[in-house]
Structures are given as C-alpha cells and as structure tokens.
Amino acid sequence: MLRIELDVRPNADGWFKENFHAAELEDAGMPRFEVRQHNVLYLAEPGITRGIHAEPWDKYLSPSNGRVFAAIVDLRDGETFGRVETFELDAGQALSVPRGCGNSFCVLEPHTVYNFLVNDHWSPERVTVDLFDPELAIEWPFPRDRLSYTERDAANPSLDSVRSALV
C-alpha cells in the first residue's frame, strides 16, 4: 500500500490537482496501473460507512471534496494477514491499495465525493469482513450508533472466518 501526497494548487476559482499522473505515481513507488474503470461516489452525510471489501483488482482512492477516514485491512494469505492501517484523506491525499486488501471508509464531512480508480472491470467477486470485528479493533471516528452502513455490510463474516477459508 502507498499513501500519496498530491499537489493541490489554490487558484482564484478554488483549486486544481492532478489526481492521477501515471509517470509521477510510478516515480513515487506505485506499481504500473492501467485504469479500467473510474467510479465516483457522492456521500451526503458524515458517518456513512462502507466495507470491508477486498476485490480482485488494485484501487487508487482519493476524495475530490470532503474527507474520509479509510481503514485498509490486509486479507491476503501470509504473515501480514489481518494488519490494519488507517488514514484520514482529503483532496490532497490518495491511497494505492493492492488487490486482496480490504477497503473500508467512513465519511467525515457532508458532501464528500470519493473517487475509485480500478484496474479491472467490476465483478461481484470479493472477500468481506465485519467492520466491527474485535480482532481488527478499528477505531471508527464516530460511535457505532452514529454510523450508517448497509445490511449487507452488517452481515460480513468475522476475520477468523476469512482466515479459516484461506487454509
């Protein structure tokens, strides 16, 4: 995984950034990334939470507006399985997340716009984990009763179940 600081340049109208510049990102250590799909998610309210989802593609994540708390969980078989890294991201940061790592986020500001660039087309295949698994101990930025998440995400399996499926 790689956290990238982006150059956000204020101007008379607001700001400008090069959100994705392949050569500069490769120079910063990001593996070559061929964009196949660019998804944009508008999130109206703080506390909206999604994840933990590990799809069979690499992701490049960055807000265009607002802020998110991102929790990334390594779900690949190996010694780093279950490792959690958390970040607060605004328009000046991006994350490069390799396939097999679970992405989750919580909206911190109203009217957040989150960009997901991926290097494969969408498919339903994915590994999911419970947002509130005690083994992960993710410290979400709001109490659980202030988070808004889907019923599908609420039914995600435990980290231990995912671990058992890998064996």
UniProtKB/TrEMBL annotation:
Pfam families recorded: dTDP_sugar_isom
Originating species: Kribbella steppae
Origin organism lineage: Bacteria, Bacillati, Actinomycetota, Actinomycetes, Propionibacteriales
Domain of life: Bacteria
Family of the protein in this entry: Belongs to the dTDP-4-dehydrorhamnose 3,5-epimerase family.
A Gene Ontology term for the protein's cellular component: cytosol
Site (Participates in a stacking interaction with the thymidine ring of dTDP-4-oxo-6-deoxyglucose) location in chain: W122
Biological-process GO terms, alphabetical: dTDP-rhamnose biosynthetic process; polysaccharide biosynthetic process
PANTHER family, A to Z: DTDP-6-DEOXY-D-GLUCOSE-3,5 EPIMERASE (PTHR21047), THYMIDINE DIPHOSPHO-4-KETO-RHAMNOSE 3,5-EPIMERASE (PTHR21047:SF2)
GO molecular function: dTDP-4-dehydrorhamnose 3,5-epimerase activity
The protein's name in its UniProt record: dTDP-4-dehydrorhamnose 3,5-epimerase
